[in-house]
């Protein structure tokens, strides 16, 4: 009996210890007005000492697209939200950065379509903020990038149109701006079988013809790319829709490859399911070159607007990524 109580106390203690590593875990992520933050599949722009969080606005009833061979649960695409913070703890709602439209299925931004994984970069040359996101039909057969532009980080962003880079499919995606100012779009292509890394034009508004195929036939999605000590790191998930699976990471000395797969960056309980999350971004912490936050979505596929968040700080030590929960 005594031992059972001791084990119980110890397990509560260690669980709390483990949980205390997470910055955000679950559905309770509020803005400074006390409202639930609605920013899924998110990305962060760090500009003028402010962090800007952009994400999918998921609002409304979840429904299942009929006739699909997979669990194609959808919620109306509410556009892209924007929040700002200087300490990564207090987030102010800056409103809707990119608005969706209702009742116009031929419009890329219609609520019946897909507006996912928005990412924003600042272009030093043009002084514009550029947003890319995954734009699609609700059966994911368009597989395109949507591109929008703004004079200020929070928007409103003007929609410029959609594109398939080099006529290749683009689904889950991220943007990455390198230290030399060059920017890249990284995306699941070829029906999610293979990822592509494509250099953008100098104004970040278009893909160039310079692209490379990576993680060939590895079926990866939700790319999150970051750089540490001159080396590139790419964390991805497997392809199992809204259901969690094991993450994996790859490294490269050049962003165009060759990329080497290393394995699961997560360890601890439920590491094989990425702690029930799917990554959306890796945020470098300003002023701490080896410190990052793994940002993920805790999808609730039957009620997508209730999906939560999991943010885990981690450090790259001796070139290795270790994300512990
Ligand atoms: C995966 C993707 C998400 C979304 C869902 C749709 O989880 O990573 O962004 O497209 O599939 O099922």
The secondary structure category is mainly beta
State which percent range the strand residues make up. Answer: over 45%
Largest sheet: 5 strands, antiparallel
C-alpha Rg (nearest Å): 19 Å
- What would you give as the CATH superfamily? Glycosyl hydrolase domain, family 43
Order of helices and strands: HEEEEEEEEEEEEEEEEEEEEEEEEE
The termini sit apart by: 29 Å
Say what the CATH topology is. Tachylectin-2, Chain A
Q: What characteristic shape results from the CA principal axes? A: globular
Helix content: under 10%
- The low-confidence parts are 1-20
Bound molecules: alpha-D-galactopyranose
InterPro entries: Glyco_hydro_43, Glyco_hydro_beta-prop_sf
Protein name: Glycosyl hydrolases family 43
GO molecular function: hydrolase activity, hydrolyzing O-glycosyl compounds
Organism: Mucilaginibacter gossypii
Summarize the structure.
The chain is mainly beta.
Report what the structure shows.
The chain has 325 residues and is mainly beta. It has one domain: Glycosyl hydrolase domain, family 43 (Tachylectin-2, Chain A, 5 Propeller). It is built from one helix and 25 strands. Strands 1, 21, 22, 23 and 24 form a five-stranded antiparallel beta sheet that branches. It is globular, with a radius of gyration of 19 Å. Bound molecules: alpha-D-galactopyranose. The site of alpha-D-galactopyranose has 9 residues, from strand 8 and strand 16. Alpha-D-galactopyranose binds next to strand 8 and strand 16. Pfam families: Glyco_hydro_43. Belongs to the glycosyl hydrolase 43 family. InterPro entries: Glyco_hydro_43, Glyco_hydro_beta-prop_sf. Keywords: Glycosidase, Hydrolase.
